[in-house]
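User: Could you walk me through two proteins back to back? I'd like the raw sequence and the structure tokens for each, with a short line separating them so I can tell where one ends and the next begins.

Assistant: Of course. Protein one, sequence then structure:
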Amino acid sequence: MIRNRVYGALLRLKGSSPHREYDQVRQALAGEAPLQICRDYLGLVLHHAYRSVPYYTRALSPIWSEDGLGPGQFERIPILTKSIMRQSQTDLISKDIDQRKWHYNTSGGSTGEPVRFIQDKVSDKWTSLTTKYYYKEIIGIDELAVRKVLVWGSEREILNHKLALRSRILDWLTNTTSLNSFRMSQADIEKCIRVMNARKPDLIRGYADSLCQISRYIAKRGLNVHSPKVVVSAAEKLGKDRRQTIEAALGTQVYDFYGSREVDGIAGECNCRMMHLFMFNNYIEVQPEHNSSEMGRVLVTTLHNYSMPLIRYDIGDTATLGPVRCKCGNPLPTLAEVTGRVSDHFLTDDGTLIHGEYFTHLFYFRDWVRSFQVIQEDRRRVRILAVVENPDQGEMDDISEKIRLVMGRQCDVIWEIVDDIPKSSSGKRSYTKSLVSQ
């Protein structure tokens, strides 16, 4: 409890505490028109974008009036794609950016097309608010206070062989034990299980496939393991098989959380297996596909990132809408199903599993890469398909070296510069693919 108070005090000193906004959201969602708060925020960000963001000044001009957008006009705003973000990156930045505390980020490359963008202190605060709301109001736990184990990925930890001091302090303040899941040898999995049993966390959160790998190991060996109150899967599609494997091994329900780096939290699963849309953080549309009356593209409009607002942004996923009112009682509308991101693990000579996210992180902030796919052809050969502009040989060598760091010095890394990378039958490009049976 003392740790949480210290952490809360630090957030207030930095002006990053979402406490006031959190109360406003709870009150608004408890009212007679719970989604009015979304419409209010949407109107504000549209006015700001029209006045201060060159790209949207041009895009909105044909449909803009003194009162903003009229009925049915929002759907006429052009869809924003990753390609457009790259081409118009400067014009998507607000003219008042110097008045804001902002930072660069990059997409996770879930479709093999990473893109750089800007987020600011206010949008970071709403990310924290969304996390707090999900755990407290939908799952029913105080995420900040409870003991938790985070099974996540850090390429920096692999490259530097240690967790950064800032991360260690943050983990202590938030009662978190972080376990790196980018490299999952038998020893790494056994360490995860030892930590889970020693820490006895109330919450375990991690990559879907990493949690599944640990759970398979537990089941195969018939191990006894601490059962937390809650398991939350994030960053990639959970799926029925993974869900069943994790729930059987850890003895508790798995909740699916849906988001992306560009827009942060989008939706979170409740007890009824419905994904509640965080409409106070992002405005979500599901645009039907030509041959489907239910499934459609997910379009996201950020409501609080005024430094670089994204309006009707196509994040590369498809989803199916669920009921507007869920049986669980939460007032937020739902998604019934999400076609999310699935990572492949790569297998080394000694049987160590390397999470696919490790490889995508190597492409962060490499602006000369337009799209990519990393393919493991056998245990000692990795092929990189890359669509590039002005390739940087030094950075290519750096990526190759970091791949050998985890795959082994004997690994042959082959670069293949291509004009395009084929999509899968689902219409998405997988960013990692392993052809080696595990």
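----
Protein two, same layout:
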Amino acid sequence: MSFNYFARFALSASLVVLTSAAFGQQQSQAGKGLPQGPMEKTSVRSYPGGDIAGSKVVRTRTESAGREVITETVEVPGTTGRFETSVKTTTETTGIGSDTLKIKREVFGNGPQGPLSLIETSVADQQNFADGRSRTTTNTWAPDAGGRLNLASREVKETKSIGGDARQTETTRYLPTISQPLGESERILTTERRVRPDLVQTETQRTVRDPNGQWQTTETRNQEVRTVSRGEVVEEETVRNVDSAGQLNLSEKTVTRRTTNNGSDQVVTEVYSPYITGVVQSGNSLTLNQRLRVTTKPTTNGGSQIISETEAPDPSEINGRVRVVARTVETVRQVAPDVWETQRQTFTLDGSGRLVLTSEDSQQTKGK
């Protein structure tokens, strides 16, 4: 098998990164030296194996007078072999720097009206109040078979101080119901407290409506962020999900350690789970499911290099040893004034258990 589970996992994850144009899109750590402000970014992906078509992402950003427009197009080879646009996303943000922010996002793709027709529109209105509260309402529309836009969902997020060093965020999601256009379907309550200068605790509770219309807690998350020293921070999160009997059971634990030393940053994230393919477990004990190690180092030319390694139990063995199953090497360097180039190589396991090159990305970022 030349393209196994880990190859699919790594490539799918990286494709999400390339094609995401969600609100508040952030740059990777490799972007520390990249130009800010108006810019154009072009990413080209190829697969040395030749069994998957390549792709191209072009992202442009302009900003003026409190208004920002980001346009991203995803191109794939067409029938003629030339790149053709398959998805186009436009995100317009107005009111930057004010207490009222509006974000409009339009996605064009293969919809009921043909190629590059509107398939989704979202509008988010955010208000910041003098007492520190904020409220964001996001409405999403999708076209029906005739191309008419219908309200598909709504999300209302409210954040407020609840005394001392504590803040609470309540998110309510609405979906169409049989009896009304939109009805409450999900509630998420998050409370963040600074217990000590070196300790922050966050509790999250997710509830949904059951078939009888009653609210039921389906998931809880508890997180602690501890500052161990000036260059070390440890995050620990436990997740509990409801089982078939309606009881909350421990389902996942994540421990993240962030360290900084001599200008280099390292983030090690370990995920523990009671359900791992090829691993025999007893009871509700948790076993290491995945370890992600990301190391960022500055280079002599003002750029940076990021090496990401994913470790997981070998699926070919019962209770297999934890080993590196994927590696990504990303290098950023300046090639001209206000022009940066990023090269990314992804290695995954082949059928013989060897790390082989499975995809290459080339990205160029231009500033003003």
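The mean pLDDT is 85.

Let me know if you want the two compared in more detail.
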